[in-house]
Amino acid sequence: MHCGFEAGFKKVCVMLSWLRARLLLSLFILFVPVLAGGLTLEYILNEAETAGKTIDYSGRQRMLTTRIDALMTRLAIEQAEADRRAVVSEIKDVADELGHVHDALLNGGGKYDLMASENPKVKEIYFQAPHDLDRRIETYLATIREMIAEGAIDRADIQARLTGLWQERNHLVRALDALTGEFSQENQRLVQGMKRWEWLSLGALLALLLLVWRFSLRPLAERVETEQEALEGISRNVPDGVITIDRHGSIRTFNKAAEEIFGYSEIQVIGQNVKVLMPDPHRSLHDGYLRNRAAGKENKIIGKGSREITGQHSNGAPLPLDLAIGEMMLGGEKVYIGVVRDISARKQMIRDLAAGHEKLVSFVRHTPAAVAMFDRKMRYILHSDRWCRDFGLTDQNIIGQCHYDVLPDMPDEWKESHARGMKGATERCEEDHFIRQNGVDVWLRWEIHPWYESDGAIGGIIMYTEVITERKQAQERLHLLTRAIESASCGIIITDAVSADNGLQYVNPAFERITGYEAAEVLGMNCRFLQGDETDPDMVMVLEKAVKNEEPVKVRLQNYRKDGVPFWNEVSISPVRDSRGRLINFVGVINDVTEQINSVENLRRSEARFRHLYNSTPVMLHSVNEEGRLISVSDYWLRAMGFGREEVLGRRLISFMEQDSAKKAEEEILPRFYQEGYIDDIEYTFLKKDGSAMDVALSAVSDEDEEGNFRSLGVVLDITDKKRVENELLQVQKVEAIGQLTGGIAHDFNNLLAVIMGNLQLIQRRSNDNERVSPLIESALKATGRGADLTRQLLVFARKQQLTPVATDINELVEGLIALFRRTLGEHIEIDTTLCDNAAPILVDQTQLESALLNLAVNARDAMPNGGKLLLSTENTSLDERYAKQHPEVEIGEYILVSVTDNGPGIPKDVQAQIFDPFFTTKDVGKGTGLGLSMVYGFVRQSKGHVRVYSEVNEGTTFQIFLPVNRDATETKVVEEAPERLQGSGQTVLVVEDEPEVRQMHVMLLEDSGFEIIQAANGPEAIEILKSDAAIDILFSDVVMPGGLSGIQLAGEAVKLRPGLPILLASGYPRAAVLEEDAPFELVLKPCPDNLLVSKLLSLLGQSDVEERMEAD
């Protein structure tokens, strides 16, 4: 601050010895700028103080407007009139305070002391009325006073006008912001002026001293006296304190300004150590500083330039000082001269500015609004605490951070709004959606305004936000409630609670629909317009009394629609109170219960009908109490069970169940029923009074009687017949499945027998009638034949054996069997017959039927080893729809019934379900194959008949065979006998067989019979051979083959490739099981004797109509 002063002052000391004659002139010249500098400094300090107070008062104006905003918002939402009046009173006080501050700024007086500025710039900014800010404050205050005037504090009116007040407030705040910015800039200019004045004053002083040095030289003899006088004159007149000390630190000179700064007189300090002017911490260091200075070492205080230090006033108070120190020769002795300036005022002004800034920061931080200030790079400068809370940033220090780093998920449209704000635009949105960093959805209302630097450039933006989530949710809830009320099926009304007539204020559409009145017709009216001649006056009185007593009430009375039609109205009225418990409205709910009331009588009549139906319905119905005891049963229940009513009421329902059913009900079903309240179709076995069992399905549902006691209603269905049908169906399905299995076994077994038989026949041909070998071969062939018979029995059960049905008279067939039965069964079995008259004709394989009847007769004989009776009977009968429902495999129609009855020991129930299973037998090991009854079953089913057994232990058994009547029955073709043994003559046979052993057997047998053989393992391989040039006279193929191409498909492809080619197929199944009825191919059954196979081949080789039959197909 005092740079160059030290050197200049030395020159002044030399110059003073030569300027004695010019001293008076020099002092006068020196006094004029000092005086001017003092006056200028006083002016600057005055203007600085005025600017600081003006900034402070302007900030207070903004704070007061914010307070008014908060109170006006509270006034808009407060419902209680007394609370609104209290808020109005507080608003008046704050508005008056705002007016006082404004008067102080205008007039410089009043409640707030403010010295009027003489600065033209300051006057231009504020004090020269009329100013734009004056108009805005007056408009703002006038708007507020108008809004809170007596009789104008209606909440709805306040809410409607609040937006306009907000706009006025925003204009005012922007004007105050602009004012504060201008004052801050002017204040900075004054501070800079103070600094320039310091330099100018020092420069002027130096210039004067140089002028004196230049023009006032005096003889060297007068130098010391002149020097002393000049120094004293300078010390007395400069505005800064000037102190000189010797090398020991003793004070030599102490000017007037120093006296004013430190509070000591010159007499008090001359000769004392300069440490008296220092606070304690500096005193102990000062001697060391002097020694270092004298020794030419570096020091902290003494030296060139100036710095800020702390001195001490005579009263002990610390003094902030600017200090410049230099050296000079005084009286031939080196002394140190210090120039000090009291900077308390400047420090206080800086503190005031800092305090103002802190107030601004505190104001922003604690303002109830969410506000943040950003620079041009969107870095945070200021923000309120509410801002952090609203955006979920309470645990972060975000000052200096970029807004987009703090909230990285910022929507792009917000960033675009920020960019427009940086260009000077004002952006706002009344309703916007935002997701906080913690995932919480919020709704915001926001505004963006630019702020400006002192040079007018945009420094950044200020953002104001308000979380309106609760308001949004409240609006949505209100909208939802409104829609619910508008959509309600019951009528809803709201009436006034203040007026004596309680007029209607609202009715929903349901009210209009129920009463026929439109809302516009009835609003403001009392509900008495709904009453009529038949309205019960007592009920009306009950309603009026409850309304008078402000109590809820519910009544039912007759009202009248607009068209005069009466209806029964169930009315519920409830009082509505505000947050302070004061009655503000009544809400009513009305329901048209005309149908309900009319239905009461209908209900009484229906109860009588129900009781009649309950007792007469052909379903078992009952009711039980919580203990499971019967409290009512229907008449049908009693008839079905065989009990009287007095025998069952009071008994537990499970006491009528057999043991397993009772256990199931007690442990499983009842707990579930009590928990879920219902059961559906639970199967039990009930025991009738006569001890017989009845299968039932029980469904029940829990209920309560009129007194709230538990009861349940049960429905019991007799499913005895249904269970029997299901069991029979299961048996049929089981037998069907076993049939499929046994058919497959028979097919594979046929392939084995074919290999064995073929090889035996080859051996027989090549043995040349060896006497030792031939008997063995014959025995083996007979065994193979028996094996083939066994497979045929299996195929009969599987219904895959070829039958030869012919028209048959059942009576003739039975009579023809009697002699056979007598020889077969023996004399200890008495045989009798009961044959019907005019037995209807049937179409059946007589051989298989005879075998089936013989099988049943033999089984009867084996069941009666000690003798017994056997009865054969025939009967014309029919099976109707009812029987067919009970036996799903039966077709409705006429039947011949053939019964075989014995009086043996009978068949137990558990055995009856298995007697038709193949290989099942009750005979000892080695005495039966278990295929007899299964063959009977398979034959009857294949003949489209039905077989059943009835047996009682120790009573005997009856097997009944139902064969369908066929009145158009004619005899069918009989399978041709195999031709005599023949030899081939070199014809080529393509043999196709997937089983290697069977294929090899056929190849050897046919080669031995004079044929040439080409063989293939499957259909695709045979197709390739057929496509070649190989000479083939006939195709011999198995039917069932793997590879995706069966023998039948192969035959079809072969005819296409080689038209006219004879084809012979082989299968373990009969023709009807594998070929269509009109298929143009011949079939031999496996195992096939060699002579029959050769005969078939030769026969086909002689035919010429195969191609013609293919074309006809």
TrEMBL record:
PAC domain: residues covered: 428-480, 551-605, 680-731
Start and end residues of each Response regulatory domain: 988-1101
Domain Histidine kinase residues, every copy: 744-967
TM spans (from-to): 24-45, 199-217
PROSITE patterns assigned: HIS_KIN, PAC, PAS, RESPONSE_REGULATORY
CDD domains from the UniProt entry: HisKA, PAS
GO process terms (BP): regulation of DNA-templated transcription
Record-listed 4-aspartylphosphate modification sites: 1038
GO molecular function: ATP binding; phosphorelay sensor kinase activity
Chemical reaction(s) catalysed: ATP + protein L-histidine = ADP + protein N-phospho-L-histidine
Keywords: ATP-binding, Kinase, Membrane, Nucleotide-binding, Phosphoprotein, Transferase, Transmembrane, Transmembrane helix, Two-component regulatory system
UniProt xrefs under SUPFAM superfamilies: ATPase domain of HSP90 chaperone/DNA topoisomerase II/histidine kinase, CheY-like, Homodimeric domain of signal transducing histidine kinase, PYP-like sensor domain (PAS domain)
Residue ranges occupied by any PAS domain in the UniProt entry: 227-297, 477-550, 606-677
EC number: 2.7.13.3
Stored PANTHER family: C4-DICARBOXYLATE TRANSPORT SENSOR PROTEIN DCTB (PTHR43065:SF46), SENSOR HISTIDINE KINASE (PTHR43065)
Entry function: Putative oxygen sensor; modulates the activity of FixJ, a transcriptional activator of nitrogen fixation fixK gene. FixL probably acts as a kinase that phosphorylates FixJ.
Protein name: Sensor protein FixL
Organism: Aestuariispira insulae
